Structures are given as structure tokens and as C-alpha cells.
Amino acid sequence: MRPSVILLSLSLFGFSLFASTLFACAASGDRAAAAPAASQAKLAAAAAAAEAKLAAAAAAAERSAAEAFAARVSAASRTAALPPALADTLLLAARSERAALAAEIDSALSGDPFLVRLVDKKTALPADYAPADLVPLSGGSYIAGRAGMLLREAAARSLEAMAAAAHADGISLVVSSAYRSYAYQQTVRARVEAELGEAAADRESARAGQSQHQLGLAVDFGSIDDSFAETSAAAWLTANASRRGWSLSYPKGLETVTGYRWESWHYRYLGTAAAALAQKRFGGVQQYALEFLDAWGRGSR
Ligand SMILES: [Zn+2]
To answer: What kind of architecture, by CATH, is found in domain 113-299?
Structure first.
């Protein structure tokens, strides 16, 4: 409830007290009989009018809260440069299911902020950023493609659970790359650039600071090339990863949005709330969801 509505409620409540006291006085003692019926009717009418005013004020407050929410959704959609059709659908949801959408957004933003932190060609991590809770990937239900890989604890735990579910479906997940430090990404990028040239390297290899791998929340599966898309593991991830908190970072045909060509093997752990939001409200495009959440978060600061 907004302060103006609270004030109005309080003053109307005061008025009702005053009116009912008058009424009680009038009704007590001998003078009760003498009280003119007309003035009692007047009091009742005043009380009814006060109640109607209160209801109207509450309805106006509700309308303005709905409008404010829709306006904030529109503003974040614009900042995130969502495609018009997606922005329209989101605005429709903002109007027709405000409580649900608000809860989904709050839930996506309620956890560790690094889970939804934008890391892309426009927004880099500091060179000295390294997660504090990296744990080794020893391989349980998945195959660790090489030794010494690390992920943040929550991502490692979720990866194991996801791999166990895949395993139960007869699918083996092979983890080929996980956390990369800023310095290590520098060497990876230099190697790719030496091999392909700068322009081609820009399409598939992040510069140091711009890699999701530095978050300790991203994993490359399998062959780390386009042949992975043809595997049953890729199909399983496409169907199941988002429900388990993981999201494909660079989908097919969205290079102008994500900055990178299609990488069927690169998944980022967003947590279940943000991954569900990306899937349900942003067509599974992580970049749209993260840019929207980033804009939403900045709107509240
Ligand atoms: Zn990757």
C-alpha cells in the first residue's frame, strides 16, 4: 500500500470512528428517541460514501502499481534491445499475469548475482576476478575429459545431478572444459587468433575478461565442435538442461545478438530460477534474459 493510501485509510478510519461515536451517543439515553431519523440516515450515507472512496482509492493504487510494473518491463525490454515480438509478449504477460512474472523475475535475481551476471563482448569481468568456491571436477556420473578441471561448487553439484539424470536416460555427458582463469583465457584466445586470424577468432573465442568460463559457471561438452550437435548428448541437453538450471549460451542463428557463432556444446549454469525464466519468457535465449535482468536490476538501484 502506498503512503497516500495509508493516510487516506487512516483519515477515513478516523471519520468512521467519529461518526459511530456520534451515532452511539445519539442512540444512548433518552435523547435517542428524539434523534431525528433523517440525521441517522445522513450518517449512514456518509459512512457508505467514505467506504466507497476508500475502495476507489485502493483500485486506483492497484491500477497505478500495474501500470508501473508494465512500464518497468517495457523499459527493461528496451534497454535489453529485445526483438519487438518478444517485448510485446512480455508486456502482455506483465499486464495479464503480473504477480507470476514479478515472482519469476524476483526469484531469478534473488540468488548469487554472478549467476545472472552479464559477461559478453560489451561487459567484461575484471582481470583479477576469480570465484572463491571452485571445486575439482572428478567425474561421477559424467566423464571428465581431462584432469584438473574446476567449477564453482553449486555448478559442479548441479552438473553431477544433471549427468546422473542423463545417465539414467542412457546418455553419457563428457565434460571437456570448465573454469578458465583470465590468464588462461588469454593463452586460449592467442592460440585461436594465431590459427584463424583476428576476425574469425572473434566469432568463436572470447577475449580475456569476456569469457563465461572465467565465472566458473560454464561448461563445454563433448567434442567442442559442430559435430557435437549431432550427438544424443546434445539432443538430451537441448531437451533437459534448462529444467536443471543450465542454458545454451550461443544458440544457432543469433550471432548478432550473442556476439558468437553457434556453439552447441557451451552451456552456462544460471540456477534453476533464471534458467526457467530464460526458457519460459525469452524463448530460451540466455542473452536476452540476462540483458533484461541486468536492465531490471539497474532500474532498482
Ligand atoms: Zn565454452
So the answer is: 2-Layer Sandwich (3.30)
d(CA 52, CA 40): 18
Question: How far, in Å, is the centroid of ligand 1 from the Cα of 205?
Answer: 8
pTM over 0.70: yes
Q: How far is the CA of 169 from the centre of ligand 1 (A)?
A: 25
pLDDT in tens, 25-41: 444 445 555 567 889 99
> Quick one: cell of 102?
514479478
Kindly give the distance from the C-alpha atom of residue 186 to the centroid of ligand 1, in angstroms, as a whole number: 14
Report how far ligand 1's centroid is from the alpha carbon of 266 (Å). 5
**Which residues, listed in sequence order, are joined to residue 143 by a DSSP beta bridge?**
174
Cα–Cα distance measured from residue 200 to residue 195, given in angstroms and rounded to the nearest whole number: 9
- For the stretch 116-151, pLDDT in tens is 999 999 999 999 999 999 999 988 899 999 999 999
Q: What does 38-107 look like in DSSP terms, one character per residue?
A: HHHHHHHHHHHHHHHHHHHHHHHHHHHHHHHHHHHHHHHHHHTT--HHHHHHHHHHHHHSHHHHHHHHHH
Q: How far is the CA of 292 from the centre of ligand 1 (A)?
A: 22
What is the Å distance from ligand 1's center to 291 Cα?
19
Span 86-104, pLDDT tens digits: 999 999 999 999 999 999 9
Output the CA 177–ligand 1 centroid distance in Å. Answer: 7
Distance 277 CA to ligand 1 centre (A): 22
Top pLDDT among 196 and 36 is at 196
Q: 57: CA distance to ligand 1 center in Å?
A: 54
* 227-265: pLDDT as tens digits: 999 999 999 999 999 999 999 999 999 999 999 999 999
CA 149 to chain centre: 28
Task: Give the Å distance between the CA of 240 and the centre of ligand 1.
Answer: 19
